[in-house]
User: Fold these one by one.
Assistant:
Number 1:
Amino acid sequence: MSNAVIRESIKTNSEKFYLDITHKDPEFIKQRFPMIYNKCLEEGVDMTKDKIPVFPCQHYLMGGINVDINAHTNVEGLYAAGECSHTGVHGANRLASNSLLEALVYSRTAAENMMYKINKYGRKPIGNPPKLVEVSGNKLPKGIRTEIREIMQDTYFVIPKPEKYQESFRRVDEIVNMLITGKYEITSDYVEARSIAICAGIILDELREGINL
């Protein structure tokens, strides 16, 4: 559906697309979709009488880290659960119901598997203790996450644009290097910006190399 809407939008140079549920009884709509109904009212749309304007947007994707039934990755001692993991249980789209399963069921099996291995083999944590790092530094420039989001939405959204892969990768790579070498203050905003920049760079690098994701 998203693909068809985007193509029609390009063809007609219009973003006017609608859902229409006005044929249903108003009380049914209010009881069946109370949150959507109230949100539409806040935006000036009465879905019992009006068509609802819609357009494709970014949604959550299923994670890309392959795990087994115990949420264990192919790296010894490393588990992944929740929206970062790919269990194979669901399709490509992350929705509320299946993300709940991923977060609750697989995180529980991961914890149980960890405790089982600790109790059976007496395993100790792998690797060295984390090092203390300097958290103060330069303020993170505003707009970095927005720029990355716009780059990815333009380059690799519903309809990918292969002709932009190289250019987009170059810019994201510049952002990654800036974030790594800029000696910025370690905040949640910085960590998030650096994480999404690295992820975007990996995706675009794979795309420009012709690897199917």
Note: The CA atoms of residues 23 and 181 lie 58 Å apart.
Number 2:
Amino acid sequence: MNYETIQRKIEKLAIRAGEKILHADTDALQDVTITTKSSRRDLVTSMDLEIQRMLMTELKKLIPECRFLCEESIPEMADAMITDTDSITGGSSITDGICFIIDPIDGTANFVHGNRHSCTSVAMTADGETQIGVIYDPYRDELFSARKGCGCFLNGEKLPVFDASMKNEITVFGTAPYDDTTNGPTFRLAQNLYELSADVRRTGSAALDCCWTACGRFGLYAELSLSAWDFAAGQLIAEETGCIVTTIDGQPLTFEGKPSILCGRPAAVGEFRAAADGWRV
């Protein structure tokens, strides 16, 4: 199996997804239906479903034996030869063979409200290890793409491996909007980040937070609860530029459950952990 060939195919599919996002955003958002899932903040649109269906269909053609771990639930698709057994509901099941981890629109709330900061995220795992990560931001026409051990590229240009401390960098945090139990700790985290860094941001896209940390726009990213589709591609992209990516308390990230995330340069991660000693999620 040629991972480079698969990577190029995923890149093309991510750009196709981005074209759909831009078309809906500029011409047809009034035709996009919006519903809620677990809470009023947990949105899904008809465009999420359309993009995920397209990605699953094309990736199944590429690797017929693959399985999927996706944000959205889509019924069995007989026309695409995708059955219920092709979809994985728990990250612990990603141990054998090829699995694609898909977030069709990361930053759905941004998309719905016209904030123009969303992306499509696709990761490919082989026997439980992430081998490919591709994230495309259609609004900036930025394609982040990484293959394990081969570095990360932004629009074809290889991103450098470098280190940086927090004090002169902007940091970013996520609010884990689907889990209200994290509200208090999240904003204590935000204050901690603000006091340690030049300033702090909240963007609404975990995948792009990882990418922007990877390319140096942010010095550190932290969030208290994420799903695998939020971080799988972004983790590899960041790690391929020399970032450390773990849970807040330094444990390895897993695809099971909803772990916290800390993503940043070694110096920044060290500074955060030293300052936050004794503070745990």
Note: The longest strand covers residues 98-106.
Number 3:
Amino acid sequence: MDCRYIKHYSRSLDREMEYKTYGDTGVPVLVFPSQDGRFFDYENFGMIDTVARHIEDGKIRLICVDGIDWETWSNSSGDPRKRIERHEQWYHYITDELIPEVRRGEETFIATGCSMGGFHAATIFFRRPDFFNTLLSLSGVYSARYFMGNYFDGTVYDNSVTDFLSLMPDDHPYWNEYRKRRIICCVGQGKWEDDLLESTRCLDTILAQKNVPHWFDYWGFDCDHDWPWWRKQLDYFMNNIVATL
């Protein structure tokens, strides 16, 4: 398997950022880390091994990006305006710098992640559907209110999927774009999944009301918020995705 480590300077963040790629052909998969996670976590927790056959068959290639959650969403004692401004800089790093760097021509991406990685994947997917063909979010939360408490401004709104989708006009062109995409969200009903389950049901309801096709899968009460289950989910859903490529 072709595996590459890249370190580059981000203008948006004014710092060096890192990412890692796996495979050199196939549909690009943009992988977002879980809360306070790093670009190497997907490999360290066995997720690369889970989809290795699809990478080696040339069906997909993975780009595992780095996060800065400890400066933004996790920094609960920090100034909320500075936190969300810093996150927006990270968002522009992804959309304005990293995606153009790894994108080949006009190809579109699969966005995926577990836990907070699912939050990031969904937020960027719904903000920029022009970049993506598929969302695969595992145990994600879809409201920024979960992290920002009582603070809510326009930039928080822009990063709070259930808020901005709820208020998006019916004639907004993005609705038709979403209807052309593949949207998959999965959540368990076991330990540490309660908040994620509630948030997933909320997003499920909004998309159903707007007639946006989607596949929301609710796994059993034995399915916990943890890597062993995410490996099983990734294997199951990626098999389905790859079968349609």
Note: The first helix runs from residue 41 to 44.
